[in-house]
Amino acid sequence: MSRSYHGVRPHKHRVYSVDDVMALYxxxxxxxxxxxxxxxxxxxxxxxxxxxxxxxxxFHQVCAPKKQSxxxxxxxxxxxxxxxxxxxxTIRIAPQKPGVFVANATCPNCAAxxxxxxxxxxxxxxRSALETNTSLGSxxxxxxxxxxxxxxxxxxxxxxxxxxxxxxxxxxxxxAGRYDPKTVNAHLISIRAFxxxxxxxxxxxxxxxxxxxxxxxxxxxxxxxxxxxxxRQRVSHLRLFFGxxxxxxxxxxxxxxxxxxxxxxxxxxxxxxxxxxxxxIDEAAEMLDRMSSATLKDRRARALFAFAFISGFRADALTxxxxxxxxxxxxxxxxxxxxxxxxxxxxxxSNWFPRTEPFRQVFEDWVMEIEELGLGPDDALFPGLxxxxxxxxxxxxxxxxxxxxxxxxEAFRLASSDAARRYSPHAARHTLVHLGDQICxxxxxxxxxxxNLGHSSEAVTWTHYGKVNDERKDAIFExxxxxxxTTSDEISLMLAYHEHQxxxxxxxxxxxxxxxxxxxxMQRQRKR
Length: 528
Known about the structure:
Number of strands: 10
Distance between the termini: 78 Å
Largest sheet: 3 strands, antiparallel
């Protein structure tokens, strides 16, 4: 196997059919058959084949070509991505400079033209092959045979666990296709952990004792390997899986298993929740000011951090926004459940949150910069840096969003580097909820704030307030823009100023004085 698949990442706990493998690796059915012949083990000998993700990973790690120079006689075809030994009749060699030669040849697979720089040693080998009419394939084979078994890499030990349950799990994966892939993978982690505990035992042979023993095992593991939250999650996943399993043909005798993994009551009681850490909106603005803007990557990180507070989007949604989703004039952005990676596929219009003016300038500068680089409406708002370098390519396809939210996580890590603690991307949503608690005065305003975060149902105190349609929500946010709403902390500070409770020259006095003057200016403008 000569092609590399470094960018393909199957999940080790999943089970893939032949069609799944073809779609994942973008190969044909014959290629998968060749892999099986070359050592890729199916989960069993049943038809059609299914493959464990761990086996796919192992096979490609062992068989993928290492990053090394081409052996003598081998050419790299840039069209079909294969290392090949061309036929002698297609090879042409010309000197480029003393000791360096250029060889041109035709790929025997796809007839593409190939070029290779040769040193004197390889030139001598090729010239000798041409003069003696010796196949280049034999030169490549001699070289690779001499290189075999050299080095410290012993490969990856095969998975000794039984694969008896893989075909059954493939059926469950089909059933669980209604869930988000991340949810399916989380369930598979729990199921595979149970499978390891029972020693790879076929699930059809499970007993109640197996389920009870596993429950006792994870209870003993609490605190060492598992938190209470993870322990509850594992039990929930297993109960749901056993419930599905007992309804399958030949598995009805397992109907009691869900009850045997239920945790004792002391583990079911709600524990005291630790408040999530998040910055205030002013602290977040200070963090933004400290972020570097020296490079394009730095400016993208600043814009990602700023836009998280402007829009309130989750990390996956942030990285999949496209330029046409953003209304720069109307200060709105579309949360598109069809084109973006969104929670539960929600679609709604999010108005830019008030009190985010320090963030808006950074974001507007980023939009202006990428448009000058050649990005259009269908391009990703926060593309990969390599894609940005190709933005001016004529007749190119739209630049897709980044495959993961890693850039958002990195942006928050950089922003938190000088802060008192590190904040996650989701902290921006907590900041905005806290800001809404301070700003919103009426139930209608609170409901609009909730809808702007994408919450159809907020906490109990927000749930029963009146409905706010999109038109009314827009009007409320226009009022936020015009009235520059004041937080409860600022109201307390101004009250202390008017009652002469602040000492002149202190930061509190200076801030309160600025707030009072700003409020007076706004009142004068309204009178005009």
